[in-house]
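ok here's the first one, seq then struct tokens
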Amino acid sequence: MSTAQTPARTLVAGVGNIFLSDDGFGVETVRRLGRLEPSRLPPGTELMDAGIRGVHLAYKLLEGYRTLVLVDVVGRGGAPGTLYTIDVGPEPPDTRPAPGPLDTHAMDPATVLGLLHDLHAGAGGTLPDEVYVVGCEPLDTADGMGLSDPVEAAVEPAVERVLGLLSRGRAPAADSVPRHDGDHGRPGPRTTETTNS
């Protein structure tokens, strides 16, 4: 009988709409991760093209993943193609969707994480211990197929950034600056920013 431990499960999910130009960044990054030699991904790592299926992603996360890495466009005012690594942590996001019908085709990472916590409260399951977002500043999210040049150029660095997170099991500490949340003075998610030029 083997006493080897089962590796902790990690989910890397590409989020976004491939029909809205740069919004397809997360999906394309996860597709490229899927083309790598399997040995480059740590044991227990699963890749998911979540696309715009945020509710499906939230339910899947209740299956018991230790780490979640979401890959998506993130508008933070930087130059297009700037990559961000955000250590969200296991706590529910401060910003929650307004009550009312849920638009399952317009779910950003904060909405998915808020829904995940709501589902967990109602249905149980296991929440991830570590949650990261690898985001890219978009140039264009209008109707259209294909990524803009600066966002396309950020895909391979994003692949490497995700691999770095998976190999370390934690977000890079160098150059991380705590961000404060609104007027509350509470530390917010830790962010690392890189511009691809």
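and now the second one, same deal
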Amino acid sequence: MTEPRRDPEADDLTWQEIVRHLRDPEQDAPDQESQLQYAPGPDAPGQDAPGQDAPLPEDDEDWQPPDPGRVTAGMSPGAVTAWSVLAVVPVVLLVLGLLLDGLPWWLWFPGLTAVITAIVVLLGGLPEERDENDDGARV
């Protein structure tokens, strides 16, 4: 899409008026003659442009967005478990480490093993190849 051509001299005049108005805010707005007049482009409001959305209905006060569903929708049970372990176990180890005077090896070793296993499970679930037609714009 191309931008409308601008007159550099008119831009300079407009900029000088803006600066003058900032220095003296009590001065009235710039003259109407010095305002740049552009023809409306295809995306201007009120123009029928291809791909422009239909107008919204007038009675949108009762509209409610659809329910987004569960947070874990589309996740495998293994991924949900791995995320839970990755979030909970370090916090539990930290709290126990602060409450007890240091953690015995039989507490921190299984916790550390669980966290490392959760990381391996999550990294193992990543796709190995990328779809050629995917531009990455979808969430």
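notes on #2: The CA atoms of residues 82 and 117 lie 8 Å apart. The first helix runs from residue 8 to 23.
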